[in-house]
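Throughout our pipeline, every protein is held as a single compact record rather than as scattered files. This encoding replaces a full spatial description with a residue-level series of whole-number codes. The remainder of this section carries one protein's record, kept here as part of the documentation.
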Amino acid sequence: MKRWASALFLAALSGWSYAQSQSSFDRIKGRGQLVINYREDAAPFSYHDDKKQAVGYSIDFCRAVADKILAQPGMGKLKVAYIAVPVDRMLTYINEGSGDLLCTATSDTPARRAQVGFSRPIYIDGVAVMVRRKDGVKRLDELKGKKVSLIRATTASGIVADHLKKSSAGWKIDEVLNSDSAISQIQLGLSSAYVRDSVPLALQRALLPSPDDFVILPERLSRESIAIAYRLGDAQMQKLVDETISETIASGKAREWHDRWFVGAITVGKASVKLGLPMSEELRTAFAAKK
């Protein structure tokens, strides 16, 4: 009985090791399907259009990657499935092999690099600060000693804490439960500023009845690379993804996608909005870098 149990354990362990050692391409061929995971609530990087189809800036990059994968020997007849995943499980799906690519607003951080691999950057984001236009604030140092709102348990919380340690800003922090509460605080003048990652902050501003009443300050509190994620240690996938991104940059498609989603009008839900985020110098530099 013990020998039988041991044999089962070793067989299971061997199967797990084999699954871990398989390249993504082998796994894709085996299942007959390329699986692209995304978040359905991360506009303009990835979200649903009115037909419940995956759309967005990151999705455009991954469609190009999918085309390149399907052009590989033996891959031409594969299907491509776009599967939405919850934010708290998105890295797990890639790490376990349920998904092949994660195409959303995924920040490339040291902690996450221990779980999944990342492509070269497709966007540079960071924590930003929004103020009321009528208050006349133009620089971060003008908020010294003021009350600042941010959403509880987000990356902005830690970044603001670090900023306060390293500066004499002396902000009075007001942590709220959600984005609606944060915008209400600044609308009513109960807070002097609202801190959040720049892209969702710009989207929230654009969806307001009077977006021009608010200004996002040009200074950022942090810098984060947004990238495509894939299974850790998969050199073959890494090479193909990075090559595809480089090709879209060289052809001008990457710039077109950026301007479409971050500068021009996009439809989110039933609203047509403009984020008004021209390409940053940091992203220009990242795109110009040889990879």
Summary: The mean pLDDT is 90. The chain has two domains: 22-124+225-288, 127-216. The chain has eleven helices and 18 strands. Residues 2-21 form the longest helix (20 residues).
